[in-house]
Amino acid sequence: MSVFLQFLFSGLTTGAVYAMVGLGFNIIYNATSIINLAQGEFVVIGGLMMWYFSEAMKLPFFISAILAVASTGLIGLLMERLTIRPVKKSDLLLMIMITIAVSIVLRGILMFKFGKDPYTYAPFTEGEPIHIYGAFIQQQTLWVIGITLFFIILIFLFFNKTMLGKAMKACAVNPVAARITGINVDKMVMLSFVLSAMMGAVAGIAVTPITLMEYDRGPMLAVKGFCAAIMGGLGRGRGSVIGGFIIGILESMTAGYIHSGAKDAVALVIILVILFFKPAGIFGSKTIADLRRF
Amino acid sequence: MLHIENITKYFGGLTALEDISFFVKEGIIEAIIGPNGAGKTTLLNIISGIYAPDKGSVRFKGLEINNTSPYQIAKAGISRTFQHVELFGNMTVLENIMVGRYLRTKAGLFACGFRLPSASAEERAIKRDSEQILEYIGLSHRRNEKASSLPIGEERKLEIGRAIATEPSLLLLDEPASGLNEVETSDLSFFIKKLRDQKNITIILVEHDMRLVMDISDSIVVLDFGKMLAEGTPQEIQNNKLVIDAYLGEDEEVCL
Amino acid sequence: MQITNRNIFIGFSIIIIILPLIFTSSYSLSIATFSAINSLIAIGLCVLMGYAGQVSLGQAGFYGIGAYVSSILSIHLGLPVIFACIVAMIASALSAVILAIPALRLKGHYLAVATLGFGEIIHIILNEWGPGGPSGFGDIPRFNLFGFVFDTVMEYYYLSWFVVMIVMAFSINLINSRFGRALRSIHDSEIASNAMGVDVPKLKIKAFVLSAVFAALGGSLYAHYVTFISPSSFSLFQSVLVLMMVVVGGITNLWGAVVGSIIITILPELLREFKEYDILVYGIILILTLLFFNKGLVPIVIEKLQKVKP
Fold first, then answer.
1. Chain B interface includes C310 (CB < 8 A)
2. Domain range for residue C72?
3. To bridge C44 with a disulfide, which of B38, B142, C95, C211 should be the other Cys (CB 3.0-4.6 Å)?
4. Interface of C with B in 188-217 (CB under 8 A)
5. Above 0.90 for ipTM, yes or no?
6. C91-114 residue pLDDT tens
7. Does residue B176 share a domain with residue B80?
């Protein structure tokens, strides 16, 4: 039992990050039908910027966190302005390639700035691990899970309760109609990049004290987050959150009980099985998948 | 030659076709007419295997062909054109016809890749046959142009050419005159008759242009809101009360 | 002179033959050899993506299968390299069929992620259960044929480019045959090509298999050249590299795959002076190419040349 709980909590921690990345995928996908494969880099940037502001610049915790999130959002904004907007034709392959290229550039910049070493900083709260049924749960684990859940709820409230969020949703459903009703679709697309960059940053800030962070973590995070999004049904935020947690837990169970090296294969095998038998995702509906161009 | 029996097709809650039955004799031009949304194209899609009917059966030369995939139906000898032209836009006019020959040729992947003598001989035959078809439809002068660069009249011709390259015994034409001017339409009507008489191809024609329909068809089926309204010779249809009533509410384009 | 495939082919062959006379260092010949190996994977992907319209982010998987199967068979079973290579291509073809049958139902992003998943799973399998694990293994015999061992760089250079030109000739023939026309027709209108009697699913599987066989051939040539392989050469990054080669060179032209491979293979060598920051420069060049020359180099050059002609 205690071992199981230990694995469960470690799964929830990584799962929380996957959920945030998956949700980030969906925010951009819903606004643009683009899969942003640079999504993982946002997490890395968030973690490394947090280190920079809090450890290198010695700024207070909250200011560092805000600056880290803001600077990652700025990078999301620049990405959209410089590389997504200038391309007029929405060619699937071209868009995939561009986001991959952006992720390569971002990795290059990160390595330039931070080198290849892993970084970490103090957990949010000092103190002994918590005992639950014989399992040791680090306090930071609870922070990660709590913070991601908090922000996920915030995002859902944003999309369902605020005018701006509803406008963004409208663009996703029908950009032409949205434009006619006076919504600035271009602005919404830009906003989607900023928002999902900031989501990634939050996850990165929370998880770095546990998992450490180095410049080349991005691609694997992107792959897993993408799996979460596909699992939940592309375009469905709630599905991708659940998908992220499921993948995180299954990974940590596989690593614990079966074979640590097989961990990374788990998500991929699940995804292949889902894609081949239920391409719309576990929580997705077939009609929505069919309606999508890609 | 083609038996349509009790065909019914639903789209969600909508009944697109309900209990359609008729028979197409070999060597004739059969027209299917009806107002927009009557289910004409749906019926063609069922015959060519793009949709499977929910009820009923389609028999072609005695063989049941519902639930058969489009490429097998093409192999059995049914070819078609599309209401919204579906040419291979990035390929040349000649290549479009050559794709039609795919079905009747058989060189394998290796033979093609290593250009074995058998494949080369076949390739020459494909080219020769396709050139002949181009000549037949009068598009030889466009041979090396991209299909997407053709005007609509020639696009429609090319689609028919591509279809006859598959050596069909039954040809489905989905609104072949739409977008054509008067001269082109009369040209087309002459051409369709030529196909029937010279190439021995049975033709099912879905069309809005009543002059064309009345001019060339041997038999007409009238659909209205997915139901069979009438069937008969052009003469009979023109005098059919039900048909006249159904069309009175329609616009002048389909005036009898 | 007309820009026909035949003329390009002849011109290219001449360049390949005389190149070692100009660049005599084994360093440059080695890079040229790697370009050839990459070309093989890229040509396959070009047929699959540019002509059949199927996205794949998992070509490194087939490449890895080719390299591992070929090496293991030649080391442990003592199979002559040429047979090991053929078995490797067959193994890769089989795995392509297994991947392609379910993947046929997928399009766009879904197909991309399915193939990516396949490639990564192969990578993880090699990492965990391949001989030597993550650090790989060595002592792979050099390529040999009828007792002749290709053990100098120059010999291997000619061998690998000879193979590329055969594969290229095969692919050009194929694209201009009934098979290739049917593939291209799927790309333009799947519904029409099906109605004209093209068995679309079967053809797509064949295209997948072809790309897998070419990639495995590349993998086998790679393994018997470097004689030491490890899983890191067959990761997602390699799949992405191959994708870049095809896109940079021009996805609608088979020569684009070769030109793209040469560029992407040479680029890191040119960026040597940036040391570890080559990845940054590399990424920037890639983005600029994608933003401003996204048709790919070969189609753009051909277009320009055709305009110059009277």
1. no
2. 5-16+25-308
3. C211
4. 188-189, 191-200, 206, 210
5. no
6. 999 999 999 888 877 777 788 888
7. yes
